[in-house]
Amino acid sequence: MAIIGVSNNSGRNGVAIVMSDKAHSALIEWKQVSDRMTYARFKGSAISRIIMPLTSAIGEYGIGKLCTNGERLLRYAEKYELFVTNTCFRYRRKRLVTWNSPDNQHFNQIDYILISSSWKSSVLDSHSYRGAEMSNLHGSDHVMVPVKIRIKLTTHRKQHPPRFLNYLKKFGESERISNRIIQASQWYKYH
Questions:
Q1: Alpha carbons 42 and 25: distance in angstroms, whole number
Q2: Do residue 79 and residue 115 come from a single domain?
Q3: Which pLDDT score is estimated for 172?
Q4: In angstroms, rounded to a whole number, what is the distance separating the alpha carbons of residues 139 and 147?
C-alpha cells in the first residue's frame, strides 16, 4: 500500500491518495495543484481529486476559486450558522455565473444569498437570472440571484373559554349561582 500527498505533516488541509502497490507502480505523474486539489496520471487514465472545504455553510455546486474574500464570507457564514443558497442546486454553468468581466473573458460566481441554516430545507431554488434589462438598465456586470423559499407559517388557534363558562354566561346562570353562594355564606356566618 502506498500513500502520496502533502509532505508538510501539519495535518491540516491537503489531499492524499491511498493505493495498492500495483496502482502505485502504474503511477506516471503526480501534481499537487493546491492544498485542496491533486492531479494523478496512471498508465491508461488520469484522476483529478478536489477536496472541498468541510463545511455545512456551502453546497457542492459553486464555481470558481475560493479567494480571501470568499474565505472571509465562509468564516462569517460558519460563525453565524448561515447557508449559501445558490451553491446547493445543480445547474449549467451559465446559471451559476453571477459576474462576467467587461471583455466577456472571465466568469465567476461572486454574488450569494445567505440564509439561516435552520431555513436550509425550505429553499426550493436559487440560481442566477440573466436578463438584458438588468445589465442595460443599471449598467452592471452582475446578474440577479433570486431565491425561491417555501414558508409554512403556523397559525395559533384562538383560546376559547371552557364550555361550562359559556353555559353560565349564556343563560344568566352565573348571577344566580353567585347570589346563592352569597346567601349561603351569610347563613353560615350567622349560624
A1: 9
A2: yes
A3: 67
A4: 22
Residue pointed to by grid coordinates 500495483: 22
Q: List Cα–Cα distances, 101 to 26, 69, 98, 142, in angstroms.
A: 42, 18, 10, 9
- For 123, list phi and psi in degrees, rounded to 5: -75, 120
Please tell me whether residues 93 and 141 are part of one structural domain. Answer: yes
* Domain identity same for 103 and 31: no
Residues 27 and 74 in one domain: no
Q: Is position 58 within any domain?
A: no
pLDDT in the model for residue 91: 80
Whether the pTM exceeds 0.70: the reply is: no
For residue 94, the enclosing domain spans 68-149
pLDDT for 30 beyond 80? no
**Whether residues 76 and 34 fall in one domain:** no
Write down the pLDDT at residue 1: 44
Q: Which residue has the cell 470568499?
A: 70
